[in-house]
Amino acid sequence: MSTDGNKKQFWKRNAAKVPGSIQHVYGAQHPPFDPLLHANLIKAGNKPPPTTPGKPKKATTFQEFESITSDAWDVGDDDDELLAMAAQNLNIEVVMETANKVMQRHFNLKLTSPVSFASQSSPYTDGRLVKSHSEAPIGSPKDELRKLSWSGIPRQVRPITWKLLSGYLPANAERRESVLKRKRHEYFGFIQQYYDSRNDEHHQDTYRQIHIDIPRMTPESLVLQPKVTEIFERILFIWAIRHPASGYVQGINDLVTPFFVVYVFEYIEEEVENFDVSSLQEEALRNIEADSFWCMSKLLDGIQDNYTFAQPGIQKKVKALEELVSRIDETVHRHMQHYEVEYLQFAFRWMNNLLMRELPLRCTIRLWDTYQAEPEGFSHFHLYVCAAFLVRWRKEILEEKDFQGLMLLLQNLPTMHWGNEEVSVLLAEAYRLKFAFADAPNHYKR
């Protein structure tokens, strides 16, 4: 692909913060769960009684604080507990119904891309799910939970499933209650010791920016509730001081919302956007806050380079998106080139906010079901989702005949009425792209 070296660089290196290290997220590939292949593997189990948690050590200095704030996660033993929970909580009929809807819709669509992927490896063949050649061996409980979750998680079991998929809860049921209590106590220990430092001179700018950014978030009916605003401010500030090399970066604030909303689901039946969060008991609010903090932290561990100086992780992903789109739909790519639309001008936000500003919250939550079930979902699979998302608007893009029209379209895509069906089709297309380009250059896989 040819590039124009004379074009001005859109993103300038003017960030004031210097970020920290990068940690990887978990590893082997796990395609969508195939209920037809795996139904006989589901078995039930009993939950042993919980154990008593330990109390976190209290730090007396910032240096001691840094030395004890390891984000080590209590990964579970390789037992049958996750598989049993998957059988009990993720209804197979729900999974199959979702998968059938995806396939029916998917195969009714005509491929608009000039590249045919019919011969490529895909989870969808002949109207049914099939096992991918790269699928992990059958038998791992963690793999089974991911496969069950890939096609969407029922609302009533989404909170515990997200905690398990993120690594916040261990697989071993005997340790779950003690881990939750310990991590929650640890988080509020940070609040007690360090939240007052938001008024210190060297933290004022960080806190001020967080305070400014939160009211700009959506849905406004939720985040503008005083109790919710306070919770978000604490979560973001504590995360920032726990990562002093990067600090707070705009965009991180949006990543709290899906976790917060899903964990509120544990306590209410109505929609969160229209619910008065302050009516919840204090203990419930504390649990939601701590759980949201730890799970957001785990997500950010896998995409830390998105928020380092000049945000190189995002720049690499945007460049990879441009190259990927040039291969899957050269017409769209050349159309944007012709009108001098730089991918960084619209896709930076797609990577920085994980499409949260492009999709309704309900769609983001459904998308994150798959991201958490897909290894490296937020850091790797998201690239293919963005490519599928862009090509989804092929007709509308080609109808625009100037720079201004293209930018207005790409920054305001009409997804207001999207639901689970549209997201499921998007994910199916992204999955096809992932395996069609399994042998693509390494930068697609970063």
Automatic annotation (TrEMBL):
Keyword Membrane listed: no
GO molecular function, one term: 14-3-3 protein binding
Keywords on record: GTPase activation, Phosphoprotein
Domain Rab-GAP TBC span(s) in chain numbering: 152-375
Keyword Phosphoprotein in record: yes
Coiled coil: none
Protein role: May act as a GTPase-activating protein for Rab family protein(s).
Protein name from the UniProt record: TBC1 domain family, member 22a
